[in-house]
Every structure is written in structure tokens, then in C-alpha cells.
Amino acid sequence: MLNIAGINFDLKSIGVTTMVLFAVIDILGSIPIIISIKEKAGGKIFPLRASLVALGIMVLFLFLGESILNVIGLDTESFAVAGSFVLFFMALEMILGISIFKDSDDGASPKVASVVPLAFPIIAGAGTMTSLVSLRAEYSVQDILVSILINIIVVFVVLLLTKRIEKLLGKGGIAIIKKVFGIILLAIAVKLFTENLYHMIDVLEGTKEVVQ
């Protein structure tokens, strides 16, 4: 536990949430797609713009995601269980080497391409949003915010050095990274499912006792 300016940060939680978001965002696995977008946008993208837009989307959904669920009558535990299925299948796709479908924009300008489809949905896509709401059911907001910031910094660096990283890792290296983080994501999905399912069962049992 680390205390900064009166705010407690759990380093273990930060580590777990950072790895979850890193696996879901899969910025290294997206390098070929990023290169393709860059070529279609005239050989230029704006890494800082894309990173900041993605950061804004993720932070906004972290705080408003639960409110949106409340409006439609869902709790975070139910969403976490549903989200665990999404993470589970995403992990299977990564492990089996099946690419997650991501939209592309053939005629986009560099500025537009930096936002759509780069910031959304490649960096801050549906999987990332699902993960954020699911993680809120297990971890504190400040820990998740730190993990978001860490991932955005990684994203920014990768966007700056896309071609160099691709040459350094090669197709084999990128494939190995995807499989490793796929297995980690699979384990976390199972953990999210079991813990939140137990909570839902406890709530239901408590409700039955009250009714009786």
C-alpha cells in the first residue's frame, strides 16, 4: 500500500488492472493495423492526439459507466459477470491467434485517423470499456486511474515507435506477446466471473431470507 497526498494506492491492484487493460487494448498486437492506418492517412498520425482522446474516453467511461448501468437497472457485479464473458472470448481469440475485428477508415486525414479509428475503437474500444466497468466492481477508482495512465503512456510510446517496435519484435515476437497476455487475461476473466457470481448468489440468498 502506498500513500500519496492522503490517497492510498494498492500497488498489487495497480499491477493487476494495468495488465488487464494492457491485454485488452493489445497495442502491440495492433501494430500492423496502426501501420495500415498510418499509410492510408498519408503516412502520418498524431500519437499525442490519439493518446489524449483515448485517455478522455476511458476516464469518462470509468466514472459514468456505473451511472449508465444504474439508469438501466443493472449493478456493477452483473456487468462484471457479463464483462468476464467478453474478456474470456477476447482471451481465447488472442491465444488461438484470431484477430479481433477492428474498423478502419480508408479515406481519413491524419487528424481524423488519430481519433477514429485509432483512439476509438482500437485503443478505447468496447472491450476496454467493458473491462473498466468490470474492474470497478473489484478495485478502487484511484488504482484503475493509475493503470489507465500507465497504459496511455505505453500507447503513446508505441505509436511514436511503431515501425521500430515491429522490426524489433517481428511477427513471431508479437504473436508470443499476444498469447502470453491472452492466458493472463483468460485467468483474470475467470477470477472476475467467480468472485462476482459468488457476490450475486450471496445477495440472492439474502433476499430470499428477507422474503421468508
Give the H and E element order: EEHHHHHHHH
First CA to last CA: what distance?
42 Å
Radius of gyration from the CA trace? 18 Å
Main pleated sheet: 2 strands, antiparallel
Helical stretch tally: 8
Q: Taking strands numbered 1, 2, ... along the chain, how are they ordered across the largest sheet?
A: 1-2
Apparent shape: globular
Structural class: mainly alpha
Proportion in β-strands: under 5%
Helix fraction by DSSP (H/I, runs of at least 4):
over 70%
In round numbers, the mean pLDDT is 81
Q: List the uncertain runs.
A: none
How many E strands? Answer: 2
Q: Descriptors for this entry?
A:
212 residues, two-stranded antiparallel sheet, mainly alpha
Structure description:
There is one protein chain. This protein has helices spanning 11-25, 31-40, 47-71, 76-96, 110-123, 126-136, 141-160, 162-211, and strands at 2-4, 7-9. The chain is an all-alpha fold. It has one domain (2-211). Strands 1-2 form a two-stranded antiparallel sheet. Helix 1 (11-25) packs across helix 7 (141-160) and helix 3 runs antiparallel to helix 7 (141-160). It is globular and about 60 Å long. The mean pLDDT is 81.
Give a short summary of the structure.
With 212 residues, the protein is an all-alpha fold. The chain is 78% helix and 3% strand. A hairpin with a 2-residue loop joins strand 1 and strand 2.
